[in-house]
Amino acid sequence: MNDRLISWHGNPSVPAFTPPPGAVDAHCHVFGPMAEFPFSPKAKYLPEDAGPDMLFALRDRLGFARNVIVQASCHGTVNAATLNGIAKSDGKARGVAVVDPAISDAELEKLHEGGMRGVRFNFLKRLVEDAPKDKFIEVARRIQPLGWHVVVYFEADILEEMRPFLDAIPTLIVIDHMGRPDVSQGPDGADMLAFRALLDSRDDIWTKVTCPDRLDPRGAPWNDFARSVAPLVADYQDRVLWGTDWPHPNMEKAIPDDGALVDMIPRIAPTAELQRKLLVDNPMRLYWPEEVAG
Prior knowledge:
This protein is an alpha/beta fold.
């Protein structure tokens, strides 16, 4: 019996939009291969294999140059599959780890040597059982010497209760998927205004303007997403990242076309300057700072 899930498009379209040279898909994942990298016994979903070869083939098809591979929750705190993806990328991938708060400094150093540049804290109850804020703050302190940042994933309804935790994080913060606002409210809706207030509270809070497929319940072409997110990109243009979210965990019932996701980019970043910041300058500063002059 095979009840493993497929959440990605088997033949994504080639996008009409051509990303600028050096563009980075700054939010994607790998699953397995399970025979080599088993999934966590605590995993809330069990996907089919979606390994580095598939990811890099998609990267090339979509016109990107690099990837940031974020540890998927189905692999728990064992980062071997993500490290494997980075190792096979020929220098074209970096990563974001998920760690047990008890991790040693030596293990953190090994993750850094393997290409990790951040740590992710997930607060989605459907994906993780325990999110100990006090222990996460300690981890955030311990990654500071490595120059890492913290990625935080939560939903809009808990933003206010997250504020003291976020205020206590001493590193740069990246918020996944804008904290999942209700984009049907529009750019001046309560969720987006609350999120802007968070961004305004610290100039070292960035965000990923990602996942129209998750955030826009009306579906493709995701017009509410475009309308709500374009002003955010314009106003916080030096603090935004973009990614495909491939292989789209838990989206098996509404699988997006990756080419169509890429074609959202010029709708939220309509000028060449905005596109270059979103896809090249900003992710390079975070993940390949040694290659950025000045």
